[in-house]
Amino acid sequence: MGIILDGKALANKLAENLKEKVKTLKNEGITPHFCVINIGDNPASKIYVHTKKRRAKKVGLIQDIYQLPTDTHQEQVLALIDKLNADQSINGIMVQLPAPKQINADELLERIDPNKDVDGLTPANIGRLWLEDHFVEPATPAGIIALLQHYNIPLVGKDVVIIGRSNIVGQPLAALMLEQNATVTIAHAKTKNLAALTKKADIIVSATGQAFLVTAEMVKDGAVIIDVGMNHVNGKLVGDVDFDAVKKKASYITPVPGGVGPLTVQSLMEAVVKLTRRQNDRK
Ligand SMILES: Nc1nc2c(c(=O)[nH]1)N[C@@H](CN(C=O)c1ccc(C(=O)N[C@@H](CCC(=O)O)C(=O)O)cc1)CN2
User: Where does the record locate the signal sequence feature (predicted)?
Assistant: First the structure.
């Protein structure tokens, strides 16, 4: 029976350490201040933005939410980003994803000053990630690495299969795991025989948004299972993994909720503090 990787407990513990870092900054007259731009009324995004607001308050950060209507024009958001980039009192900026159809999210991300890019999703910061010269990392991959480290699960020499090649999770996570000398395969919707890959994997990360995609038959005994999925099935939040069956074969497994999600939020808070410190040290 696998050990549950308790992301919620770890996020709470890391938040206590972060509070101390924020106190140190405040003693220097600096209060980290970041902005979340949320366009439209995606119900999940609204929950995530408010979770962040609660967490930010808990560790002592200032978070502004720019809630924009669904029919907002691209130029309006670009102008807002330009304004926040130029504002010396703002340390971090992020655009909550997904954005409505008429919005070109890539263009918005490109516009964010890489020094204020708390999400680590600007082309400059993604490039730095692959060059192993990064100062900020996307939040979910950073949270997964923190979770593995906390439970002393090594990556060096391990065969990892990441299911899902998104810019937010799959691709940056592959870069961070490669940096730690894992052998990484990214599978996606066009991958021919997914089970053949996952059956050989020491670590499986699923980030597809497809409930029950990863079944017990696809997992080798003792594998580590990281579930990034958030799916609503019959009014219940579940991941991509058939949790009850897979946990019997896994050595470690994340639950949904309470696994990777809370660490995504915590990692974002860490990024705000890290960038605030970096900006002030460079003055
Ligand atoms: N610009 C970004 N957009 C999105 C990101 C991101 O990292 N940057 N990630 C996700 C959403 N997300 C953060 O923004 C996020 C996901 C999950 C959670 C979370 O705490 N989940 C809970 C369950 C919450 C629930 O009940 O629905 C858990 O897993 O325990 C927080 C934030 C997409 N967009």
Answer: none
Ligand 1 interacting residues, C-beta cut-off 6 A = 47-48, 51, 94-97, 119, 139-140, 168, 237, 256-258, 261-262, 264-265
Atom of ligand 1 minimally distant from the CA of 257: 30
**What amino acid is encoded at 31 in this protein?**
T
Residue 272 in any domain: the answer is no
| Residues labelled catalytic | 52, 96, 119
Instruction: Evaluate whether 22 touches 61 at the Cβ level (below 8 Å).
Output: yes
pTM given for the model: 0.98
Copy the structure tokens of residue 205: 């990360």
Q: Are residues 168 and 90 in the same domain?
A: no
User: Considering the domain boundaries, does residue 193 fall inside one?
Assistant: yes
User: For position 50, which CATH number holds?
Assistant: 3.40.50.10860
| Beta strand pairing call for 252-253 and 203-206 | unpaired
Question: For residue 263, how far is its CA from the centre of ligand 1 (angstroms)?
Answer: 9
| Residue closest to 94 by CA, chosen among 114, 75, 74 | 114
**Nearest CA among 142, 145, 95 for reference residue 116:** 95
Mutate to test the pocket of ligand 1, among 4, 5, 48, 240 (most ligand atoms within 8 A of CB): 48
* 16 located within any domain: no
Looking at residue 246, its pLDDT comes to 98
Residue 94's domain spans which residues? 29-113
Q: CA separation (Å) from 149 to 153, 159, 177, 187?
A: 6, 17, 12, 24
- Last residue of some domain: 113, 147, 175? 113
Do residues 97 and 148 both lie within one domain? Answer: no
For the chain, first and last CA: distance in Å? 52
Give the pLDDT confidence score for residue 185 in this predicted structure: 98
pLDDT along the chain (283 residues), means of 10: 96 98 97 98 95 96 98 98 98 98 97 98 98 98 98 98 98 98 97 97 98 98 98 96 98 98 98 98 87
